[in-house]
Amino acid sequence: MTELEGVILGIIWSRGPCSGYVVHKRFANSPTSGWSSSTGSIYPALARLEAQGLIAATAPNDGQRGRLLSLTPPGEDALRTWVLAFGDDAGGAVVDPLRARGIYVGILDAEGRREFMDHAERRARAALVSAEAAQLDPKGRDNWGHQAALMGVRFEIEARLKWVEALRRQEATARADEGLAFLSAEAKRA
Amino acid sequence: MTELEGVILGIIWSRGPCSGYVVHKRFANSPTSGWSSSTGSIYPALARLEAQGLIAATAPNDGQRGRLLSLTPPGEDALRTWVLAFGDDAGGAVVDPLRARGIYVGILDAEGRREFMDHAERRARAALVSAEAAQLDPKGRDNWGHQAALMGVRFEIEARLKWVEALRRQEATARADEGLAFLSAEAKRA
DNA sequence: ATGGCCATGTAAGATGTTACATGATTTA
DNA sequence: TAAATCATGTAACATCTTACATGGCCAT
Fold first, then answer.
1. Residues of A in contact with B148 (CB under 8 A)
2. Cα A66 to Cα A43: distance, rounded to the nearest angstrom
3. How many Cβ atoms from other residues are within 10 Å of residue A105's Cβ?
4. How far is it, in rounded angstroms, from Cα B144 to Cα A170?
5. Mean pLDDT, chain B, as a whole number?
6. Chain D bases under 7 Å from protein CB?
7. Which one of A113, B1, B23, B55 has the minimum C-beta count within 10 Å?
8. How far apart are CA B105 and CA B113, in angstroms?
């Protein structure tokens, strides 16, 4: 069971019988970028889940198009198992494109570093505004887990913004202290 | 340029001429799980970067085995470009296996939810302890970006722990308020 | 001399990305 | 009636995972 498949089971459980398109839109509208929202990954995943008997298509009601998907009893078991099954590494840090780049700002000159900080801070602030707005959005209020996740998203982005601000302060301090502070040990030797 | 390739360029830049094995170990020892540490992804990526002329193997010094990799001038340019190039979605929330599962705790019974909260909190606390220890570790002190990243890791895990604690409090409250609070709209209709 | 680390890969298969393709229905 | 949205896919390609394979070096 991949992460994508687990989340798809969760979406179908929480959204009730719904089309594959609804699942696709849920990923596309997620505040969490990084979820593949391409139909090229979702429809094959739905086909896999159906082949395993975890989801099934029920006949659409009058006039509705498409296939209405819902969890089978084994699908519900699989979702319960997936929710409770996370490795020892879960809870730790996850891949963050901003942090990954921040490690290597030392290769940039002063202007480049400022550009990085500015851009990163703008992005983080914009993300925080979106996250706060999403929490206030009345739709999704009925789903406790959904609201809890939006809270988690906000906490995560607040932490990222705090980091970017600290990064900027440290950059200014380091630049004042010694010009080489940003260079790697290797570059210093050269 | 994939994220993996970008980070590999960064590692080779900051570690100076080093073997592919060193790159591999850096991923394996990263506090950020989720980076593929398998040789099956790293050596092919190194081969791609070499084919593009971004890294080159220099002859190893006396007695040293293996190939010593370093960035070519185009490789340094590529690293600078990659560090500054992050999409509009960067800065926002990233995929978090704990949060993804937390959305759907409603499918669990009271005992299952308690198990989830307990397990998640233990994992987050353990990760925080590791992150704090890594910050105090003297090795890596010379690299400003490395230290900054460790700070970011700690902030992220602190946010996750804060979220898990909030989740637990809300779970207790919701359970006291109404037994159905955890159920999805679909499950309620049934 | 044996187990552990250094070091570099490959093979098969699963998965994800990007782009294309089609057609119905709804809304401005 | 034109554009947007609903709806479901496929094809080619790139990438990642898992597992296997090999051999040198070093400390106990």
1. 102-103, 163, 166-167, 170
2. 13
3. 23
4. 9
5. 90
6. 6-12, 15-21, 23-25
7. B1
8. 6
Which two tokens mark A23? 């699942």
Which residues 98-137 of A have a C-beta within 8 angstroms of B?
A: 98-108, 112, 115-116, 119-120, 122-127, 130-131
Global confidence as pTM: 0.92
Instruction: Give strand C nucleotides closer than 7 A to any protein Cβ.
Output: 6-12, 15-21, 23-26
Position A184 scores a pLDDT of 53
Chain B hits for A156, Cβ within 8 Å = 93-94, 96, 99, 156, 159-160, 163
Mean per-residue pLDDT for B32-46? 93
* Alpha-carbon dihedral sign for residues B176, B178, B179, B185: negative
d(CA B30, CA B37): 9
Cα–Cα distance for residue pair B77/A58, rounded to 1 Å: 55
Q: Measuring CA to CA, how many Å separate A51 from each of A5, A44, B69, B98?
A: 13, 10, 46, 27
Show the tokens assigned to A173.
Answer: 């301090």
Instruction: Measure the CA–CA gap between A38 and B6, rounded to whole angstroms.
Output: 23
Residue B113: strand, helix, or coil: helix
